[in-house]
# Entry
Amino acid sequence: MVFFDLGGNKSSDTTLDNHYDMIIIGGGPAGLTAAIYAARGGLKTLVLEKSNEGGQITVTQKVENYPGFISIEGMVLAERLADHARHFGADISTNGVKNLSFCCDKKSVTLENDRQIDAKVILIATGAKHRRLGIPGEDTFDGKGVSYCAVCDGAFFANKHVAVIGGGNSAVEEGLYLTQLAEEVTLVHRRDQLRADKILQERAQSNPKMTFKWNTVVEKIEGDQFVNNLVLKNVEDNTTENFAVDGVFVYIGLVPNSELFRNLVKTTRDGFILVDQQTLETSMPGVYAAGDVIDKELRQIINAAADGATAVSNAIKTYF
Amino acid sequence: MGLLKKKDQEQIQKRFEKEMKDKVNIVLFTTEDSARCQYCQTTKDVLEEVAGLSNGLIEIEHHLYETNRELAENYGVDQVPGFVILDKDMNNYNVIFHGAPFGHEFATLLEDLIVISNGANPPVSADVAEKLRAIDKPVKIQAFVTPTCPYCPPAVLTAHFFSMINPKFIKGEMVEASEFPELSAKYGVSSVPQMVINDGENSFVGAIPEKDYLAEVLKVL
# Structure
């Protein structure tokens, strides 16, 4: 996969204005789709994405369920979404957000470089990050055989035996990707069947390099310099066993990137932002939220994008 | 046939026009032995393409590694492909690349070129810069990355920015881990970015904030 990431413009923010109609925090599929709709709707729009334009899809090797693309690399889709938003005039900046203050008719965002920018409406589209297992050994061996990014680290496990923890789409997709590199990939799942889409289940089950540990959870990650063993527990009969592996990739769900907003808008106990189901407005008037960061059932690229469109369309109706 | 897409070429050209100021020099070392260096030729090709978009502001000085080892060593280059970025007066900031600047690291390359072209004043906060300037012992930061790792460019840039601030004592290296498996294995790299300081005296994983990064670097002093 030879590609060339042109990156953003990290060294200067001189092209940013001090006032926008809409500031979108987060530049994944939700934020970038929102930017397309906002810019086309005539709003002066700024997207703040401190890490990677495209968000989580930049660490997804292949996307096969976004309509119009039978198969597209996550990186390529990310680039197209960002280009699309820029094409219609949205500004995209790599500045991170340090603080927010919402008052009255004006909402301000303080950037990490202490610059303050105002907007009439704010959209939170900060997405989510991988959930950790929270078991002994996970921290100790983080970066020494424990990984959360198959696209980043898969190359180090060529011809080795790795475990993938989880049974959803991400676990199965990334597990299948790892079979291209590793000798054997064992999917460890706490239930007796996968939660992933049927087509992925079939691919996993017919892949000769993929094996399964059903009804099984990881209790402990062990090793010397590197991971060499997992202590697995069968949840049916409570027996434990040692399972030799060279690495472990964790895909057990998401935690929302909502720390900055927890005192400002209502969230679930887990931190997912609560929104009005129709309009996607949060508990704070003029502040919307979209994508993986909100409280909802399905977290996919397509409905993150849909959220972005819904939020902007309602914001335009209500505030402009 | 160009490696860069037409649209990318236009974007790079525009960005260079807007943001580059002075000339920069790339000193590149490769080998002709393609069995030993899978990406030497493509690295040279892509750097030449990039230089071709700079309206003469980027110049490439190319050497064969085998016959110019001493020169390479002076620049801190000990793998091929390897290159350093110098300013218009050939001042060396120890901004080193070992391996091809492909994938996400291409963004790192563009950023480095622009920052050095503007006098090598990287956007590092004042208190971090002050502590970097106070370093008076050699510090080598090797940032191990893969081209497909989107978290990696900030980790490399931080190493490069640190060396720009105190090039007399600090070396900042990108190491493309998959091209140098033996080196990666030597330091036990299995997740990227992983930073290795002074050949293993300290090492840490992950892109972390500038001041935490500095704290890790200072541990070897």
The interface with chain A takes residues 3-5, 8, 11-12, 15, 19, 42, 46, 102-108, 110-111, 114-115, 118, 122-123, 146-153, 157, 177-178, 184, 188-192, 194, 205-206 of chain B (CB under 8 Å). The beta strands of chain B are 24-30, 58-64, 82-86, 92-98, 139-145, 170-176, 194-197, 202-205. The helical segments of chain B are 6-19, 40-52, 69-74, 105-117, 126-133, 152-165, 181-186, 210-218. The mean pLDDT of chain B is 95.
